[in-house]
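Shapes recur. Our protein:

. . .
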Amino acid sequence: MPITPEFLLVMAFIFLIPLLMAFLSLTLKDKTNRWANMILGIVLAGFYLLDLTAYLTKPYYVLMGIFTIVFYALIAWYAYKWEKD
């Protein structure tokens, strides 16, 4: 796959989302933060799940992909289990 400037821009946004999630967790109100974590956790877990299917022959990528999916799913799950205001 050729690496184009557009591809690098999309990948930069994907890698910046966890930083955005951390910042938003400090600045948003609880209810909004809860929803942001649930939505972004599910979206990112889904993205990495789709991405993982392309690299099933590379053990390193599979290991890191599985852990990434699990952690994003846990973020969404714990946000879902937060006490509702």
